[in-house]
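seq:
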Amino acid sequence: MPAEVLAHPELLLVGSVGLQSAEDVFRAVSAKLGDRVKRIPDGETGPRSLWVFWPRRVLERNAAFEIDPDEAAHGMRATSEVEGVRRWIGNEAAKQGEPPPPRMRLRAGVEASQIELGPLGYADVAAESYAIFRRLRDEGVIPRGVKFQVSLPTTAAFLNAHVVYSQHAVIEPIYRARLLDEIDQMAKAIPLPDLAVQWDVSTEMAQWEGVRHAYFGDVQNGVIDRLTVHCSAVPGEVELGIHLCYGDYGHRHWKEPATTANMVAVYNALSARVTRPINWLHMPVPRSRRDDAYYAPLRDLRLRQHTKLYLGLIHLSDGVEGTRRRMSTAAKFVSDFGAATECGFGRRPPDSIADLLAIHAAL
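struct:
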């Protein structure tokens, strides 16, 4: 195993960070990790820590939509047999033990042509956070050359969380157009060389794994078709990342990945279709997986020349020692990779963040 694989790997922050504000995140990450990271997100603080549940308000404020009465009667959103009943572990944005809210549907008589979704808010928040990022960079707090990262749930994630299955086909193009317009707005507000965009690909992995609903028949091709549209919407001058996600709802996956094989298959298929650069790829690694079988499919990963692989090997519960054991196994099958947590860590108590960043720094 090459020594450089284990010595000071490049680090990635997947998205959310459980601190109070964007400035807190920028300062903490820069102080602990410095130039070990190429990009820093604003931490998706406050209500955005609930990931795709934040834009739900766009439907709640829209007179065309209502709570689905069937799900409301059960007091929670329906989930799959594999997932079971999901409940929050609790943070400032959601009480411990709360189930996810029921999905929503179009009111009777509303036609697709009548639906107008307001701004999602991603572009506005990105512009606000970038202003803080730029000020801190000008002050020397954030190293020069580090980019401002925006991590976004895809259209499929929004549909799965908030729209009844029977209306996915109707709402998908409307929401996707609004979401991709947010990318255009970011590109106008933030200098392109400073911006990096990551798509959080969780629902699509669940569709690929057969865990979540897909209204389209050819699921695998349908997933790649939709991800290609999302990736192609990011301007070529902006760095693009793909986070292949198995969830972090209550610190558990919606399904434990058996191996990296399905993630390798998704990336290889997507990479063959997307013509613009894909600058990084992230895959989660469950804490217990130090066996060869989990990592062996990485041998088949057809990374592009300029695509950096990050493995989600870092776990707070077993720290530096456990992370290095997982890195050692992974290095048997892939020669160059960076390190990250499995998912964002915005749902963790703020007093645990310093320890988690310290594990990053010690690698």
